[in-house]
C-alpha cells in the first residue's frame, strides 16, 4: 500500500484503534476484534510485549485485510524496525524530526504527535501526514481541536487521549480528520476475559458515530 492509499484509508475510516495489550496474543485478538467490527486499521503500540513481532505476524496473515501501524514510536531506529516488520504507518506521542524524516524517506505515512500550536507548526512543516493531538482529553477535548482548526484549517488533526463514545461525534464536528481511540474501544477487561465481541460491538458503534457526524457536517454545509 502506498503512502497516498494509506492516508486515504485513514481518512475514510476515520478511526485509528490504539492497541495496548499485556501480551502478543491479546494484541492479535484485539486486531481481529476491531476488524470484525468494521475498522480495518490497527495501531500496535511499542508498549505491547513483542510489539514488532506482532506487527510482523499481522503483516504475514492480515496484510490484505488490515492497515497495520506502529504506535508510541519514540525514535527513528525503532520506526525503521517497525516498517521492515510490515508497518504501513507510524505514530509518535510527540514530535521527533528524525522519525518524520525517516518516514518520508521510506515512503510510509507518519502521524507525528503534538499538543501546542508551536508543535503543530513544527510537525506540519516537517511534512507529517497527520498530526496527532495528544493528550487531547486533558486540554479541552473537542473544544481544543476546534481552537486549533482556526489557525490550521489545512492540517489533518487526529485527537487521541480522552476520545470515547460520548464525545466522538463532537470531535468530528470540531474538525478532526480521524480519531485515535485506545482503551475506550479496546477494553483491557474484554481482552482479559476473552469477550472480544464487546470490542467488535464498540468498533461498530464508533464507525456509526463517525459516519453520522460526518453526514451531519455535510448537510450543514449545503
C-alpha-based Rg, rounded: 16 Å
User: Any idea what the CATH superfamily is called?
Assistant: Aldolase class I
The chain-level structural class is alpha/beta
CATH A-level architecture: Alpha-Beta Barrel
End-to-end span in angstroms? 34 Å
Annotation, overall tally of beta strands:
8
Reading the helices and strands in chain order gives HEHEHEHEHEHEHEHEHH
What top-tier CATH class fits best? Answer: Alpha Beta
Strand order in the largest sheet: 7-6-5-4-3-2-1-8
How many individual domains?
1
Please give a handful of descriptors for the protein shown.
222 residues, alpha/beta, TIM Barrel, 8-stranded parallel β-sheet, 10 helices, 8 strands
Which secondary structure elements does this structure contain, and how are they paired or packed?
Elements: H1 3-13, E1 15-19, H2 24-36, E2 41-45, H3 51-62, E3 67-71, H4 76-85, E4 89-91, H5 97-106, E5 109-114, H6 117-125, E6 130-133, H7 141-149, E7 157-159, H8 168-174, E8 179-181, H9 188-193, H10 197-221
Parallel strand pairs: 1-2, 1-8, 2-3, 3-4, 4-5, 5-6, 6-7
Structure description:
- By secondary structure, this protein is an alpha/beta fold.
- The mean pLDDT is 97.
- It has a single domain, classed as Aldolase class I (TIM Barrel), CATH 3.20.20.
- The termini are far apart.
- α4 packs parallel to α5.
- 50% of the residues lie in helices and 15% in strands.
- The protein is built from ten helices and eight strands.
Provide a quick synopsis of the model.
This protein has 222 residues and is α/β, with parallel strands linked by helices. 50% of the residues lie in helices and 15% in strands. It is built from ten helices and eight strands.
Amino acid at each position: 500500500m502506498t503512502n497516498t492509499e494509506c492516508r486515504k484509508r485513514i481518512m475514510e475510516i476515520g478511526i485509528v484503534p490504539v492497541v495496548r495489550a499485556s501480551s502478543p496474543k491479546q494484541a492479535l485478538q484485539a486486531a481481529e476484534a476491531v476488524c470484525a467490527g468494521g475498522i480495518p486499521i490497527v495501531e500496535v503500540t511499542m508498549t505491547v510485549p513483542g510489539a514488532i513481532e506482532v506487527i510482523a505476524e499481522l503483516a504475514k496473515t492480515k496484510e490484505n485485510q488490515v492497515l497495520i501501524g506502529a504506535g508510541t514510536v519514540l525514535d527513528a531506529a525503532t520506526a525503521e524496525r517497525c516498517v521492515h516488520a510490515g508497518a504501513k504507518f507510524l505514530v509518535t506521542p510527540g514530535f521527533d524530526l528524525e522519525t518524520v524524516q525517516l518516514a518520508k524517506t521510506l515512503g510510509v505515512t507518519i502521524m507525528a504527535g503534538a499538543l501546542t500550536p508551536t508543535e503543530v507548526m513544527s510537525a506540519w512543516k516537517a511534512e507529517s501526514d497527520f498530526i496527532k493531538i495528544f493528550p487531547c482529553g486533558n486540554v479541552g477535548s473537542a473544544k481544543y481541536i476546534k481552537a486549533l482548526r482556526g489557525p490550521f484549517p489545512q492540517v489533518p488533526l487526529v485527537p487521541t487521549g480522552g476520545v470515547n463514545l460520548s464525545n466522538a461525534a463532537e470531535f468530528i464536528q470540531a474538525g478532526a480528520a480521524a480519531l485515535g481511540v485506545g482503551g475506550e474501544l479496546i477494553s483491557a477487561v474484554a481482552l482479559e476475559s476473552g469477550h472480544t465481541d464487546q470490542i467488535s460491538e464498540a468498533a461498530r458503534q464508533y464507525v456509526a458515530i463517525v459516519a453520522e457526524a460526518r453526514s451531519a457536517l455535510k448537510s450543514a454545509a449545503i
